[in-house]
Specification:
Elements: E1 5-10, H1 18-31, E2 35-39, H2 44-47, H3 54-60, E3 61-64, H4 66-69, E4 104-109, E5 112-117, H5 120-129, E6 134-139, H6 141-152, E7 158-161, H7 177-197, E8 201-206, H8 213-222, E9 225-227, H9 235-248, E10 254-259, E11 271-272, E12 282-283, H10 286-298, E13 302-307, H11 318-336, E14 342-347, E15 350-355, H12 368-371, E16 372-373, E17 378-379
Parallel strand pairs: 1-2, 1-6, 6-7, 7-14, 8-10, 8-13, 9-10
Antiparallel strand pairs: 2-3, 4-5, 11-12, 14-15, 16-17
Helix pairs in contact: 1-11, 7-8, 9-10
Length: about 400
């Protein structure tokens, strides 16, 4: 009887803990005498892989075992590397697929129309050519949106959610979130000395394109104000709160953390550059925009810090190692049971398996009514009894 073969890949941005997921799957597979195949560079590894070309196989396919994964959980990043590739919306066909016909779609943005190709049939062919019985993709809402598509097309898929934004639906926690908050706390507490020494208003920009969880929880544990994408305050209110904070602080400074997608009434975050494979463009710094507004309206000096890529770099903390290992072994348990279309998750504070989220629903958002004080621009601290450990429900 042929040994079961399991594929694993990481897509989208890296976060601490990815290597722990990979190692946990490899070690469990070894106990069951299964083979694990690492797909390198995320979904690109299944779109650009040319099975007839040894060089392509070497670039995108890496057999995994106890020996080559023994120490990978000691560092951050992803051992398998990553990319932002969407096989259902390829702007350009990989060279070895040039001339072949695939379903196309046209999208128009800002007057420009582009054609994309859905090369899912080539992805399925590569899964079959690699003789993979299961695929375990690790990623955020973009990566998992294509995982859901593969499941619909008949591939056996069990997913693991990761993102420092913590905005994947059907789970209260994603790998990478705890380390990001821990790093943000450290950076803000260190910078208090500089902001206070110069008696300024410190403005921190943090990841969170569509959801404000990262800014919200950073504010929660540092007791500072936050502005999140889920609520648009008035600019005058923001400035007044921060100027008042500064005047009432014996050290004469104030702090605020903003999600990268945060806005206020009359202001829209500016985007630039070409959209990625999932339609996202880079966002201009909302922190700089708020800094300019504070200077012009209140005459106060500011210090702006960008807390983005540094938060996803380096080693995972205890929580992310714990969750990553557990999510990996849960996914392996699910494939042993023959399940598909599911995702490792935490629900009501307990580990569980949940359906891979429906991409049409978009990312999970902070529940403003129960979690965010719109008058004070702070988290709500009251009435937490009975909530799961991460203070929100999937």
């Amino acid at each position: 009887m042929a040994r079961m073969r399991v594929g694993i890949l990481t897509g989208g941005g890296d976060v601490p803990g990815l290597n722990s997921v990979i190692k946990s799957v490899v070690y469990r597979a070894a106990d069951h005498e299964m083979e694990v195949v690492g797909i390198r560079r995320g979904w690109e590894g299944l779109t650009h892989l040319n099975l007839d070309d040894p060089a392509s196989r070497g670039r995108y396919v890496l057999p995994l075992n106890r020996e080559n994964t023994r120490t990978i959980d000691r560092t951050g990043g992803t051992f398998l590397h990553s990319s932002r590739t969407n096989p259902a919306r390829m702007k350009q066909l990989p060279p070895h697929l040039a001339g072949r016909t695939f379903p196309t779609a046209q999208t128009t943005k800002k007057g420009q129309t582009s054609t994309t190709h859905d090369i899912s049939s080539a992805v399925l062919a590569n899964l079959e050519g690699l003789k993979l019985d299961y695929l375990l993709p690790i990623g955020g809402d973009d990566t998992l949106s294509y995982a859901a598509r593969l499941h619909e097309l008949g591939a056996k898929v069990i997913a693991i959610p990761k993102t420092m934004d913590n905005d994947v639906r059907n789970t209260e926690y994603c790998v990478g979130f705890s380390t990001a908050i821990t790093r943000a706390i450290s950076a803000i507490e260190r910078q208090r000395t500089t902001v206070g020494s110069h008696e300024r208003i410190g403005i921190f920009r943090i990841f969170g394109r569509d959801a404000g969880f990262t800014a919200f929880y950073t504010a929660y544990v540092t007791s500072i104000r936050c502005i999140i994408p889920e609520y648009k305050p008035k600019l005058e209110h923001i400035v007044d709160l921060l100027v008042t904070d500064k005047r009432q602080n014996p050290s004469s400074y104030a702090l605020v953390v903003l999600s990268e997608g945060a806005e206020w009434e009359g202001y829209k975050v500016q985007e630039y550059g070409e959209p990625d494979a999932f339609g996202h463009r880079k966002k201009a710094s909302v922190a700089e925009s708020l800094s300019d507004a504070i200077k012009s309206r209140a005459g106060e000096e500011t210090i702006v810090s960008d807390l983005t890529y540094d938060l996803r770099s380096g080693d995972p903390d205890f929580v992310d190692k714990l969750v990553a290992n557990t999510f990996g072994t849960m996914a392996f348990d699910a494939l042993l049971e023959g399940k598909s279309g599911l995702m490792s998750a935490i629900v009501d504070g307990k580990y569980d398996l949940m359906p891979i989220p429906d991409p049409k629903l978009g990312p999970r958002k902070v529940d403003v009514a129960s979690m965010y004080n719109t008058e004070r621009l702070r988290p709500i601290y009251a009435n937490k009894r009975g909530l799961p450990v991460f203070l929100n429900r999937a």
